[in-house]
Amino acid sequence: MNEKYEVSLFPFQQEVFDHKARFKIVAAGRRTGKSYLACVLAYHHALEKPNRRAILIGPTVSMIRESMWTTLKSLVAPQHMSGLPREIDLEIRFVNGSKISLKGFDRPDALRGISPSPSYIVLDEFAFIKQHAFTEVVLPMTSDPVRKASVLIISTPKGVSNDFYNLFCKGQEPNELWKSWQFTAANVRPDMAEEIELARSTLDLLTFQQEYAATFNTSGDSVFYNFNRELHVSDNLLPFDAHEDIHISIDFNVKIMAASVWAHRGDQLHCLDEFYGSADTTSLIRKIKKAYPNRSIIVYPDASGNARKSSAATGTTDFSLLRKADFKIRARNKQPRIIDSVNCVNSLLQDAAGNCRVYFNKHKCTRTIASMEQTAWKPGQTAGMDAAIIDKSKNNEHFSDGVRYICEMLYPISRDKPTVIRDRSWSF
Questions:
Q1: Helix (H/G/I), strand (E/B), else coil: 201
Q2: Average pLDDT, whole number, for the chain?
Q3: Residue 428: is it exposed, middle or buried by C-beta count within 10 angstroms (0-12/13-18/19+)?
Q4: Same domain, 105 and 242
Q5: Whether residue 242 is found in the same domain as residue 201
Q6: What single-letter DSSP state applies at residue 134?
């Protein structure tokens, strides 16, 4: 295939393209063009010699389709293709017998025993693929002594306790087989300065560093990695004055009923009190009314409480009991994705500019504080992605769940704006 084709690459992309290493690892922030680079490299590989096979693998089939498929189809010249792109198989075949396929690690059986073995492999968002995938699945695919597959690994970072970080470090060592790069949006995309500053002012510091500065942060499995006792726990928070509304976040659990009490002051949330150990919703209501009689009380419960039956009165929902107590309810019809509410809390704890907007009373909110420190991601799950799951095995997430409800309700950052459950008599 002697027909020429032209693509435009940024200097940093060209550097990766030209390097002779067989295993290339790219840690790059968002909007740096790493997916485009991967498509260009796979396309070039397929055209260079006949009967080659390139495979682009993402954490899931849907994710690799979204990140690569449209770009790949727009990049490949029609005269190079044998027929139209195969939408069902996510495959492009070339007139020289080569082909490029997209696959996901959510279907691992489809990656084993591929014949003929691939000659080029791209691993997209590799930091969010399960541990040991490289040694157990990918490396065996490169072992054909004739084809000797090359590998491109690209991802935004996710901490230092994963295969992506280990392989990146290997690429920093002086050797001919491995080479790694770290690119940030600010350094390689000066045309994005305005968008980067917008992200800096919107995201929490750690998320901004990871997503845009390609930083390997050491957050471990902590969900609320921005929580810091030195910054967020205080014994100088003012008590409620006579005219302040009482805001209460609630996580429904029989004999736990974790509830944190908040003051909403300007653009800050102050956690001033907590309730724990009520047998049911009715018992919790009694405690709240006794502690804060004749006050305007706004509650932020789990959205599931609109359907769940409270043990306090068979056939009655938790929400109906709260309304009967004259509490004003602010909750979603459907709880947002966990990762959206977690990102919201972390952004309020400390944004990329260093601003803190959530504080906790040192002496009265001890369980809420402990919950913020101890809540962790479930081992083996995809922390930081849509499928992230909070570990509930240690029973320490109830108060922090409530923190997520109130923070996301008052300061949502999700693109989706779910419908709000509210009393007809109360508008906001």
A1: helix
A2: 86
A3: exposed
A4: no
A5: no
A6: I
Q: Contact 303/332 with Cβ under 8 angstroms?
A: yes
- Is residue 234 scored above 90 in pLDDT? yes
356: number of Cβ within 10 Å: 14
Environment class of 378 (CB within 10 Å of its CB; exposed 0-12, middle 13-18, buried 19+): middle
Q: Classify residue 222: in a domain, yes or no.
A: no
Helix (H, G, I), strand (E, B) or coil at 73: helix
Q: What is the pLDDT of residues 104-152, one digit of tens each?
A: 988 766 676 676 789 999 999 998 887 788 888 888 888 888 878 999 9
Instruction: Report whether the peptide linkage leading into residue 118 is cis, meaning its omega lies within 30 degrees of zero.
Output: no
Cβ within 8 Å of residue 236, ≥6 positions away: none
Q: What mean pLDDT comes out for the span 295-300?
A: 97
Report how far residue 321's alpha carbon sits from residue 306's, in angstroms, rounded to the nearest whole number.
Answer: 10
CATH label of the domain that carries residue 294? 3.30.420.280
Q: Are residues 414 and 340 in the same domain?
A: yes
**Which of 242, 256, 217, 246 minimizes the C-alpha distance to 352?**
217
Contact 404, 375 (CB under 8 A): no
Round to whole Å and give the CA distance between 32 and 18.
18
278 neighbors 287 (Cβ within 8 angstroms): yes
Number of domains in the chain: 2
pTM (two decimals): 0.58
Considering only CA atoms, which of 350, 375, 379 is closest in space to residue 161?
379
How many C-beta atoms lie closer than 10 Å to residue 24's C-beta? 22
- Give tens-digit pLDDT for 177-230: 999 998 887 787 778 888 888 888 888 877 888 888 887 765 567 899 898 888
In terms of residue numbers, what domain contains 233? 229-421
Task: Please compute the mean of the pLDDT values over residues 77-87 and round it to a whole number.
Answer: 94
Co-location of 238 and 106 in the same domain: no
For residue 428, being part of any structural domain is answered with no
**What pLDDT is recorded for position 194?**
86
Q: Helices 11-18 and 34-48 sit at what angle, rounded to 10 degrees?
A: 40
**36 within 8 A of 14, measured Cβ to Cβ:** no
Choice among 64-68, 217-221, 326-330 with the minimum mean pLDDT: 217-221
Taking only Cα atoms into account, the Rg of the chain, rounded to an integer number of angstroms, comes to 26
